[in-house]
Amino acid sequence: xxxxxxxxxxxxxxxxxxxxxxxxxxxxxxxxxxxxxxxxxxxxxxxxxxxxxxxxxxxxxxxxxxxxxxxxxxxxxxxxxxxxxxxxxxxxxxxxxxxxxxxxxxxxxxxxxxxxxxxxxxxxxxxxxxxxxxxxxxxxxxxxxxxxxxxxxxxxxxxxxxxxxxxxxxxxxxxxxxxxxxxxxxxxxxxxxxxxxxxxxxxxxxxxxxxxxxxxxxxxxxxxxxxxxxxxxxxxxxxxxxxxxxxxxxxxxxxxxxxxxxxxxxxxxxxxxxxxxxxxxxxxxxxxxxxxxxxxxxxxxxxxxxxxxxxxxxxxxxxxxxxxxxxxxxxxxxxxxxxxxxxxx
Length: 345
Hints:
The protein is an alpha/beta fold. The protein has helices spanning 13-24, 40-45, 47-51, 70-74, 95-117, 156-159, 163-185, 215-224, 242-254, 272-282, 284-290, 311-317, 324-342; strands at 4-8, 28-33, 55-59, 80-83, 123-127, 145-146, 190-195, 198-200, 238-241, 261-264, 268-269, 307-308.
């Protein structure tokens, strides 16, 4: 029998790419979603795997409930668990209940369920974030190399101040809680955490309309569609291709020496100047017609900024990163296809 993997939050931007890659490599997958209706798109795009019982579904309505994952863990003999589910929402008023609790309690609750009911699980991989690494109070830090040794110093109280801090705090606090669990509970599985920054690339998840894109794609489409008349620098200045992030998840379960390690997953620096110049070079007629803003010297961050030390992900996980240009071309071509499909002018 092929190894059986539990993937949480199966209809998210990263998760659908992970599921696709695992299926290609012959894994059997059970993925959790919040409701039966959330399985429809996955059943459609992975129909052959569903028919062959290679892709299975479990409903977990609220991951903050105590024992939320008990049933799915009890009822299956999983070899590994990929915990990808975590809120990426910024239009909330109750930061503690809408962002912090789902991230932290969802993580520790899952680990407890595995410890109590999943004796066959030997590795848990958690999708953390560069938000758990970066110290935003230090600004652009020209020339500084962020690596796995860095931790965002944000506290729980600071994370409650606004939704942006709530998101970064949720990733740091959830990852820290996971490492504390391993140290204090000493379960029969080891842990790998993956920390990608801004994740770009084509969507495999359902996109019913272009205003329902995932958060990072929305920012690029706002420029590509001409909605943004001025270029705004992103808060995070490094990036990764979603397909490389998926490969990191696969490598994290297949590489023995990855156990009990943290990995920064990033190709390199990102700025809106490169994005605008690429659009004007590759899609000049569209850029002219849409009035896409042209780059200025300041959009290239002439004062410098930090960069990722991705050597550990290359050495241990064997990652070879896709280029910025390739990722962008695939993403923008998909936007054009979606516009045609959805009848957007």
